[in-house]
Design a protein that fits this description.
The complex is a heterodimer of chains A (179) and B (544). With 179 residues, chain A is low in regular secondary structure. Chain A has 2 helices and 2 strands. The longest helix of chain A has 13 residues. Chain B has 544 residues and is of the alpha/beta class. In chain B, strands 1, 2, 5, 6, 7, 8, 20 and 21 form an 8-stranded mixed β-sheet that branches. In chain B, strands 10-17-11-12-13 form a 5-stranded parallel β-sheet. The chains are: A little secondary structure (179), B alpha/beta (544). Chain B: It is found in: Cytoplasm, Perinuclear region; Mitochondrion inner membrane; Mitochondrion intermembrane space; Nucleus.
Chain lengths: 179, 544
């Protein structure tokens, strides 16, 4: 890089937007989605639920972790026509447990949704481990990056229709079992 | 993967918000984290009952399937990982601190910028997204009491506070506490962290000096320093690294509303001199100064004494600084006292317990966090003292304690904020002795330094769009054209690569956010790149 300004061992380059317009020719190695070393998203390649996914926050580990796992497992594996319809009791058990710990699973009255958050407040979101939309960003992002929550075009999980706006991190609301 | 059930009405009851991928980051730290919105006081000790603490010992379990020594970030991360993977796991955390597990970064950043006068008691701070949260990972109700741990139906996490593990019997799989209690375990994690180092000249300077010296690490240190900052006229911070610089900026900002003098001194030529290449360290130092700090560089402390009501610091070059209070931020000594009784290896290069790539020291014993000197497959043996590393390594240790056998692979990151113009995130080996290549966005008339946000408590740095100044056509009557920053001096934003044998081993994202996954990928690949400017393009540094 002959155009870089050398200060001792350190090289400094200033670039304009135009300088960086052409796509990069830097080569990145293709990721193996089944790499066992990599952190996994919510669903493992085997189809099982990754209870240790950071996206679940503390839900699988808190005092109602067992009930949460039972309810969510039941739902996940349900093949009923109305998926999870056989899981009502599990969900009820989970809700009953969570009501005993209002500090950990606050009930919220807002209309926007019945988001159920984790004990430590993180409403879970999975790290999509399918090929991310932006090819430069490997999935999943599970770092504790303090970067601001980007708008929905951030490089990882695509927004779903039911997602709450990102600026509005609602604490968990109450869960209404479908009846 | 399967999004089929995401829109399912039944599923809505445990609606998982897919849009906010960042907030699932385990570490529960600040910018990404949800707040419970709950007042949380640190009072595990003041649990109620009328029985006054006569020396009745609390009963605790004689056996813990999972025993975690140390009650910090790594331990909490491990506890959560264990509970997620082993249904009904019973996890006992033993800490010599009085506090439940909490996160450390706000102690030198966000807590100082809070508008709330009772922040010292609430220990709550505003996150990036404006929501408040406590520094404690979980409120007391999350935890099971130690007495109940063995019996509670679905297991849980119990924290024994104010107890120190003083002896470890590896053969017998048990530990001994300072009060001679023994607790046996099946799997054990050592996450003892470290204690702040001190300068010998201070240790030897006598009580009048040492009682005016803060070694900053814990909640109690934050509370004490907060008080000092209100009661004294002059504070001197010794140390120019992360902690010293962050505290200097925090106190410097506070000094704007008071007549507090804030001095920072260190042996290097500039702030973060061991991390940033010289040109950037110099630039940062200027920024720290503009936060109201008197920065004394190339300062080697020769002697410290108490004289005429002041602490007097004599430097080797003859300069003398008189101050009311000293904060020593000169590094961390990893806590390895258990190595002897446990028969564990201590690393002579980096300090800490020596563990393998899977963080294992010996059968049934893992180490995570600041105290772990581990083998990083990509970057080599190292020891890392950052919050995210505590999270990543704690989590990994918890996985391996429950049978995963995975090596350290997901590279942790770290960050720092020093005033409104300096915010960076970094990953890998970021050592200023390495050759670096820095690619910066060229300043144009439109770029201005990012405005400090006035959002209460939040914005140490702004995420807003770069504010454009109107680039007015030059007219003879214009008093003065908008100043175009000298391009050689304006390191407003960019990316810096650290090279070892032509491979990028470290990256700093300088005032550029949300790109950490790209940086992580580059480190992971470990490839030689002929033109780092091409690599820099991947970061889109011109966009916000």
């Amino acid at each position: 890089m002959s155009y870089c300004k050398q200060e001792g061992k350190d090289c400094i380059i200033f670039v304009t937007k135009e300088d960086h317009e052409a796509p990069s020719n830097a080569e990145l190695i293709a990721d193996d989605p089944n790499d066992p070393y990599e952190d996994q998203g919510l669903i493992l390649p085997s189809g099982e639920i990754n209870w240790n996914c950071p996206c679940l926050g503390g839900m699988a580990s808190g005092p109602c972790g067992t009930q949460f796992k039972e309810a969510f497992s039941c739902f996940h594996y349900s093949n009923e026509e109305v998926k999870g319809s056989e899981c009502i009791d599990n969900f009820r058990g989970m809700q009953e447990c969570m009501q005993k710990y209002p500090e950990l699973y606050p009930q919220e009255d807002e209309n926007e949704g019945v988001a159920m958050g984790g004990a430590d407040g993180a409403t879970p979101a999975p790290a999509e481990d399918s090929t991310p939309a932006d090819s430069t960003a490997p999935a999943p992002a599970e770092d504790s990056s303090p970067a601001p929550v980007a708008s929905s075009d951030s490089t990882l999980s695509p927004p779903t229709p039911e997602s709450a706006p990102s600026s509005d991190n609602t604490p968990p609301t109450d869960s209404q079992p479908a009846s | 993967q399967t999004s089929a059930w995401e829109n399912d009405p039944m599923f809505s009851m445990i609606k998982i918000d897919f849009s906010e991928e960042k907030k699932f980051c385990f570490p529960l730290y600040s910018r990404m984290e949800h707040a419970w919105g709950l007042p949380l006081t640190a009072e595990p000790a003041t649990v109620a009952p009328a029985e006054v603490p006569a020396p009745t010992p609390v009963e605790f379990p004689s056996h813990a399937p999972y025993l975690l020594i140390g009650g910090g970030t790594a331990s909490f991360a491990a506890a959560r990982s264990i509970r997620a993977r082993d249904p009904g796991a019973r996890v006992l955390i033993i800490t010599d601190e009085p506090d439940l597990p909490y996160m450390r970064p706000p102690l030198s950043k966000e807590l100082w910028f809070s508008d709330d006068p009772s922040v010292v008691d609430t220990l709550r701070f505003k996150q990036w997204n404006g929501k408040e949260r406590s520094i404690y990972f979980q409120p007391p109700s999350f935890y099971v009491s130690p007495q109940d741990l063995e019996k509670v139906e679905n297991g849980g996490v119990a924290v024994l506070t104010g107890k120190k593990v003083v002896h470890m019997d590896v053969r017998g799989n048990k530990v001994t506490l300072s009060d001679n209690t023994e607790i046996s375990y099946d799997k054990c994690l050592i996450a003892t962290g470290g204690v702040p180092r001190n300068l010998q000249v201070i240790e030897r300077a006598g009580e009048e000096v040492t009682k005016r010296t803060t070694l900053f690490r814990k909640v109690e240190d934050f509370k004490a320093l907060d008080k000092v900052s209100r009661d004294t006229k002059s504070i001197t911070i010794i140390g120019g690294g992360f902690l010293g610089s962050e505290l200097a900026c925090a106190l410097g900002r506070r000094s704007a509303d008071s007549d507090l003098e804030v001095i920072q001194m260190f042996p290097e030529k500039g702030n973060m001199g061991k991390v940033l290449p010289e040109y950037l360290s110099n630039w940062t130092t200027a920024k720290v100064k503009s936060e109201g700090v008197t920065v004394i560089t190339e300062a080697l402390v020769k002697a410290v004494s108490y004289k005429d009501g002041k602490v007097e610091i004599k430097l080797k070059d003859g300069r003398v600084v008189k101050t009311d209070h000293v904060v020593a931020a000169v590094g961390l000594e990893p806590s390895v006292e258990l190595a002897k009784s446990a028969g564990l290896e201590v690393d002579s290069d980096f300090g800490g317990f020596r563990v393998n790539a899977e963080l294992q020291a010996r059968s049934n014993i893992w180490v995570a966090g600041d105290a772990a000197c581990f083998y990083d497959i990509r970057l080599g043996r190292r020891r890392v003292e950052h919050h995210d590393h505590a999270v990543v390594s704690g989590r990994l240790a918890g996985e391996n304690m429950t049978g995963a056998n995975k090596p350290y692979w997901h590279q942790s990151m770290f960050w720092s904020d020093l005033g409104p113009d300096v915010g960076y995130e970094a990953i890998g080996i970021v050592d200023s002795s390495l050759p670096t290549v820095g690619v910066f966005a060229k300043a144009t008339a439109k770029d201005t330094p990012k405005a400090a946000t006035e959002k209460s408590g939040t914005g140490i740095r702004s995420e807003s769009e770069t504010e454009g100044t109107a680039s007015s056509p030059v007219a003879s009557s214009t008093p003065e054209p908008p100043p175009v920053p000298e391009q050689k001096d304006n390191y407003g934003k960019g990316v810096i690569f650290y090279l070892r044998d032509k491979v990028v081993v470290g990256i700093i994202l300088w005032n550029v956010f949300n790109r950490m996954p790209v940086a992580r990928k580059i480190i992971k690949d470990g490839e030689e790149h002929a033109d780092l400017n091409e690599v820099a393009k991947l970061f889109n540094i011109h966009e916000d």
